[in-house]
Amino acid sequence: MPETHRLTVGPGVHIGSGVSIGEGAILGANAVLLGPAVIGGRVRIGPGAVIGCQGFGYEWTGTGWRWLEHGGPVVIEENVDIGAGVTVAQAKAGRETRICRGTKIDAHVHIGHNVRIGRDCVIAAMTGIAGSAFIGDRVRIGGQVGISDHVRVGDDAIIMARSAVFRSVPAGACYSGNPARPHDETTRLWARVRRHFLPRK
Q: Has the keyword Lipid biosynthesis been applied to this entry (predicted)?
């Protein structure tokens, strides 16, 4: 990949107008960056990732869905890693979508409009975070997790793989299941299910 002014750019990368990129960033092959967006220093963006895609917003008119244009910026702070095929949506006008420093995001994660992800989080593959969700600092999210819109996840929380989060999660809590609940509660629930409803061998 060619390196220009400490920016490493893979083949097929598209950088749109209104995009600012810090020193030391690495852009993988076929990544797409659409403005307005601010990409911090030493950010790594994987192949095929799309930063600043259109947010998913529509309004019912009585006869059909009307598309609501988004135009708010995406801000990715320094030392963030974004995996292959990740999509990060533009914010609504007057808002921002922000991923704070040090966060690491695996492949094929979707981050909706107006989402705020805190510092030093880790998010595993195939997770979807809906619009206006707030993720605190140092949160760990397993693979295939779904987080509903406007949900708040507190600092240092753990969301285990394949959980469906419909309500806010307290700081430091460990949640699992569908719908997600405290992990010890989920394990007790499944123990009761096995005891009463599954055949014994």
A: yes
Q: Do 19 and 35 meet the contact criterion of CB atoms below 8 Å apart?
A: yes
| Beta bridge partner(s), residue 87 | 50, 110
Give the burial class of 107: count Cβ atoms within 10 A of its Cβ; 0-12 exposed, 13-18 middle, 19 or more buried. middle
Per-residue tens of pLDDT for the chain, all 201 residues? 554 558 999 999 999 999 999 999 999 999 999 999 999 999 999 999 999 999 898 999 999 999 988 889 999 999 999 999 999 999 988 899 999 999 999 999 999 999 999 999 999 999 999 999 999 999 999 999 999 999 999 999 999 999 999 999 999 999 999 999 998 887 776 676 666 666 666
> Taking the CA of residue 138 as centre, how many other CA atoms within 13 Å lie in the half-sphere pointing to its CB?
6
Q: Is there a catalytic annotation at residue 113?
A: yes
Which residue in the block uniquely carries the two structure tokens 């469906």?
164
- Per the residue annotation, which of 14, 110, 113, 150 is the catalytic one? 113
Q: Is 147 helix (H, G, I), strand (E, B) or coil?
A: strand
Q: Residue 35 corresponds to which tokens in the numbers above?
A: 């403005």
Tell me the two tokens of residue 104.
Answer: 């690491």
Full set of structural domains in the chain with CATH: 3-197 (2.160.10.10)
